[in-house]
Amino acid sequence: MGIEYRDTHDFSKEELEVLFLSVEWSSGHFPNKLVIAMKNFKTVYSAWDDNKLVGLISVMDDGIMNAYVHYLLVNPEYHGRTIGRTLVDMVKERYKDYMRIAVIGYDNETRFYEQCGFVKSNDSSPMFITSLWT
């Protein structure tokens, strides 16, 4: 059986914890918060291998002009199977009438995003305030 893609906001904390920790993201240590976050995103598409969550993309938007990809992650065991690209393509289709789809990619991710059609900005830089949860 191949990868199944779903449009859902409902995940167990265990599913999210396993996926986020598979890519060593610190947010995986807060699965209860991730469950709530997924319910609050405007768009969430996920990739499943049978009943195993193996990929996810989530997007916030303003309803008409701008969409912001917040999370895009694929379990490393599934890299190279076009799951990330398929999730991005689903978002591009969903937001095709918007003026802009934005993503903050880390330096080691820019090639992937460029292959998906994103263009690196020459006149702006991402900025953050990061709070550590206790």
What does this structure look like?
With 134 residues, the chain is of the alpha+beta class. The longest helix is centred in the middle third of the chain and has 12 residues, at 83-94. The chain has helices spanning 13-22, 31-40, 83-94, 110-115, and strands at residues 4-7, 43-49, 52-61, 66-74, 100-103. α3 links the parallel β4 and β5. A five-stranded mixed sheet has the order 1-2-3-4-5. The protein is built from four helices and five strands, in the order βααβββαβα. The protein has a single domain (4-115), classed as Gcn5-related N-acetyltransferase (GNAT) (Aminopeptidase), CATH 3.40.630.30.
Radius of gyration (CA) equals: 15 Å
Average per-residue pLDDT, rounded, comes to 92
Mind summarizing the main beta sheet?
Answer: 5 strands, mixed
How far do the termini sit from each other? 41 Å
Shape: globular
Secondary structure topology:
Layout: E1 4-7, H1 13-22, H2 31-40, E2 43-49, E3 52-61, E4 66-74, H3 83-94, E5 100-103, H4 110-115
Helix pairs in contact: 1-2
Brief description of this entry?
With 134 residues, this protein is α+β, with helices and mostly antiparallel strands. It contains four helices and five strands; from the N terminus they run E-H-H-E-E-E-H-E-H.
Keywords summarizing the entry:
134 residues; alpha+beta; five-stranded mixed beta sheet; 25% strand
